[in-house]
Amino acid sequence: MDVRSENSISSSNSGNGVHVVRWAKLPGQVIQRTRLQIWFIRVCSSILIWTCLVQLVAVGELWHPKLFSGFSNPINGSNRVSNNVISIPAVPPPPPLPPPRNYISNGFLKVSCNGGLNQMRAAICDMVTVARLLNLTLVVPELDKTSFWADPSDFEDIFDVGHFIDSLRDEVRIVKRLPKRFSRKYGFQPLEMPPISWSSEKYYLEQILPLFNKHKVIHFNRTDTRLANNGIPPYLQKLRCRVNFQALKFTPSIEALGNKLVHILQQNGPFLALHLRYEMDMLAFSGCTHGCTVEEADELKRLRYAFPWWREKEIVSDERRLQGLCPLTPEEATLILQALGFDQNTQIYIASGEIYGSEKRLAALRATYPRIVSDCP
């Protein structure tokens, strides 16, 4: 028998005459078999441990995502680098909505704002406050389309209507439109009226609220300055501010345009936004013609007569100016800026509509402050 054989054979006779053959294992075979067993045990143990670890991470991310981020981020990060993919940070969830205010509505308030955007914005703040005071349901306001500017935009074209409704749900109930039973299509006629200007909460509680018991829907067809600025309870004044600075949020496209404009201005250094209030409709409405030619004064007067809701027709410009009711002319605004210490390198953005008189009236301002920027032609 070759000594290199794995097994050796031995034989012997048993006592009963039977010949017994025995196989004996050599020491090398025993060692090799032991190593295979150890290797097998290690492989099985590794597979079991990794399986348990993967299951643990999967279950842990369901309950505590941040706790196990260290296990998953390196793997995901290596994939992103190898595939040249840029990871986008997750958008934080919106803040929870305030709980709705629970009240029995006394009726529906429909409003049609009038004037320019600033005037309509102030009116919206007032009308939300009136609806809160009288426990009404406010219909999303209508914007003026027949004013001097003739802007065809609706509320949702300028403001985020969803945010407007949701952000005020703990104060007043707001709907996008009247229920069908109150539509003109079904023969319903709401009461149309302009509330008295500069009225206190007493006027609305004692004279307007009883009308809702009878008509259920009232349409305020004029909303400019219909609520007193002073003398009303602090909680109503706070609501005014909340509507103006939180609820009336511009649409994303307008927000993006505004941010782009500010970014362009900031690239050229600090800037001053100046609203001269020197547009054609402002001068015609106020009757202020200081510095205008005779032809320009006549044009402004004709415009004032062309709009019937501008009640004052004959206005003496000098008297109005002495009363402090006229805007500063561009020449006077130049002197004010100089007195406030702004030097000639100041970048000025004209934040208004087209200046009446155009470049002729801006000549003094532009000569003193050549870095003037305007988005109007």
Shape: flat
Strand order of the largest sheet: 5-4-3-7-6
Rg computed from alpha carbons, rounded to a whole number of angstroms: 41 Å
Q: What fraction strand?
A: 5-15%
The string of secondary-structure elements, in order, is EEHHEHEHHEEHEHHEHHHHEHE
Number of helices: 13
Strand element count: 10
* Terminal residue distance: 113 Å
Largest sheet: 5 strands, parallel
Fraction of helical residues: 40-55%
SS-derived structural category = alpha/beta
Uncertain segments of ≥5 residues (pLDDT<50)? 1-26, 65-83
Domain count: the total is 2
Mean pLDDT across every amino acid position: 84
Describe what this molecule looks like in 3D.
The protein is an alpha/beta fold. The chain folds into 2 domains: 108-250; 254-374, no CATH class. Helix content is 45%, strand content 11%. It is built from 13 helices and 10 strands. It has helices at residues 27-63, 69-82, 117-134, 155-158, 161-167, 201-215, 234-247, 252-267, 280-286, 294-306, 317-322, 330-339, 359-368, and strands at 7-13, 19-25, 108-111, 137-139, 173-175, 191-193, 217-220, 271-274, 347-350, 372-374. The strands form 3 sheets. Strands 5-4-3-7-6 form a 5-stranded parallel beta sheet, covered by helices on one side. Strand 3 (108-111), helix 3 (117-134) and strand 4 (137-139) form a beta-alpha-beta unit. Helix 9 crosses helix 10 (294-306). The protein is flat, with a radius of gyration of 41 Å. The model is unreliable at 1-26 and 65-83 (pLDDT under 50). One of its GO terms (biological process) is fucose metabolic process. This is O-fucosyltransferase family protein.
